[in-house]
Amino acid sequence: MLNAKRIFQSPLTCRVGIACVGLSLMVLTTGCPLLGDPCADVTCDGDQTCVLGTCVDPDACANVTCDAGEECVNGTCVSVDLCAGVTCDAGQTCDPATGACVGDAPTDPAGFVAASAARGGALYDKWWNVPGVTATAPTDDHAFWATQSTNTRSGSDTWRCKECHGWDYKGANGAYATGSHFTGFAGIFGTTLTAQEAFDTIRDGHAFGTAGLTDADIWDLAKFVLTAQIDTDDILDANNTFTGVAAAGQATYDTSCAACHAADGLTVPPGGDDTFDAFVGFLSNDNPAEFQHKLRFGQPGTAMPAQFDVLDLDGIADLATYSQTLPTELTAPPTGGDAVAGETWYGANGCAACHGAGGNDGFAADLTGAAAATILEKNDGTQTHGGPVIDGITQADADNVAAWLAGL
Ligand code: HEC
Ligand code: HEC
Ligand code: HEC
User: Fold this and answer.
1) DSSP letters for 160-172
2) 139 shares its domain with 215
3) Among 345, 355, 390, which is best to mutate for testing ligand 3, by the most ligand atoms less than 8 A from CB?
4) What distance in angstroms lies between residue 132's CA and the mean position of ligand 1's atoms?
5) What is the pLDDT of residues 111-151, one digit of tens each?
6) Do 279 and 201 share a structural domain?
7) Which of 43, 106, 140, 318 has its CA 20 to 30 A from that of 312?
């Protein structure tokens, strides 16, 4: 007789006479045995029939067979709309016979095709230092700057893409969400602009054309924006530690970086304007997002080569991971030397002519952090030296110079 348990366990939850209607008559017979006859007192209009107590239209298509490419709608065969739900690119149309998009696929503007994402990445940094840029650094504030007040920098800094959009390209949603660089401006990561739109935004919307960047410069920037951004979360964990393989990175570092930065990363090569914070170990730990960008696109205006066309993202991650293991600061300055006396001796013996007044701003080797033994050996003739042999140089002189250099 009644099988209430089976009714209520039906996967289609047949609440008597309602939910199963129209789903499948098979279900009615197999899954939903009836409780008596709910149609007993129901009278239906016209050709409707009573199913589970409800009047429904007959399935007009039940006995209709349509040709290929057609489907039955209300008992009539109509062509299937193959283009329904198909979205074609600009300049293309959907072919109703096949449902495929036809017509000329839109091509990127020629300027974009010819552009260099690697150069665009360098321009994202201090663009006025990038070779080929004829414009000079602006001295006024960028027009957008007035719409924020939290970042108090001024002048050329306000024209660097990175100052507003961040080294991680995520603007106020990334590393610049807090701190002195916060502006509140959005990032550009994940932008959906077309090549032409990106170009127009940068040249006209941001007035970089007026600032003196050429169309070719701006296409390079657009190409960087659309093809060369990375999600820094792919190579950095939540603790800002790079997630590559340090051993693999060391091999790259030793062949590609050590010649300029020294094996320990504590030599700042001449040509830039930074000193202590340009140590490889320091910058990779202090600002990993900036570090990955510098690795990929180089240091604008210096001999530092970009790795963008050399290493894939894993290679960058490995190199950055090894870099984070390098020392972040010079080892403890030598004790015993007299820095003031050392500075005087350095000046009196003409070292600045080649090594620069600060020990690291000449054309010859960077001396910051030079050990007393090296200074002694270079200047007493024990080792070859691009500079002079100093008659009578003592260990104490070398100690004094080393103490002064270490404190710079
Ligand atoms: C002074 C701050 C500032 C600087 C510098 C700046 N931007 Fe922007 N950028 C913005 C703001 C604000 C927006 C959003 C409003 C707008 O598009 O006008 C934006 C929007 C964008 C967009 C559009 C993103 C999207 O999906 O809508 C791109 C692309 C872009 N910037 C690229 C650049 C590039 C490349 C540079 C360097 C050449 C740069 N920006 C320099 C502030 C800046
Ligand atoms: C041909 C010499 C040269 C080579 C090779 C080189 N660099 Fe540099 N690098 C420089 C110079 C010059 C600077 C600018 C220093 C400054 O800003 O004072 C620089 C700057 C940097 C900076 C930015 C420092 C800052 O303060 O912004 C980082 C990071 C860096 N180099 C890492 C590397 C790594 C890692 C490699 C290996 C892939 C490498 N460099 C290879 C010459 C070189
Ligand atoms: C005529 C230019 C010139 C003068 C002047 C000069 N040097 Fe040098 N120095 C060089 C050059 C070039 C190198 C790099 C090549 C080499 O090691 O010989 C160098 C290298 C060094 C080194 C080795 C640095 C390193 O990283 O290994 C030390 C130390 C040094 N100089 C100290 C001095 C001191 C101290 C004076 C002043 C008494 C001085 N130099 C004056 C040209 C000069």
Assistant:
1) -HHHHH-TTS-BT
2) yes
3) 355
4) 22
5) 999 999 999 999 999 999 999 999 999 999 999 999 999 99
6) no
7) 106
Q: What is the distance in A from the centroid of ligand 1 to the CA of 335?
A: 50
Q: Is the beta carbon of 144 within 6 A of some atom in ligand 1?
A: yes
Our answer on whether the CB atom of 355 is closer than 6 Å to any ligand 3 atom is yes
Domain membership of residue 183 as a residue range: 110-229
User: Which ligand is nearest to the Cα of residue 123, counting in written order?
Assistant: 1
DSSP 389: -
Whether residues 122 and 68 share a domain: the answer is no
| Ligand 3 atom having least distance to the Cα of 401 | 35
pLDDT in tens, 150-165: 999 999 999 999 999 9
pTM: 0.64
372/376 Cα distance (integer angstroms): 6
Low-confidence ranges of the chain (pLDDT < 70): 1-35, 274-277, 331-335
Residue 54 φ then ψ, to 5°: -120, 140
Domain count for the chain: 5
Contact 178, 193 (CB under 8 A): no
Q: Is 390 in the pocket of ligand 3 (CB under 6 A)?
A: yes
Atom of ligand 2 lying closest to residue 307 CA: 38
Longest CA span, the chain: 124
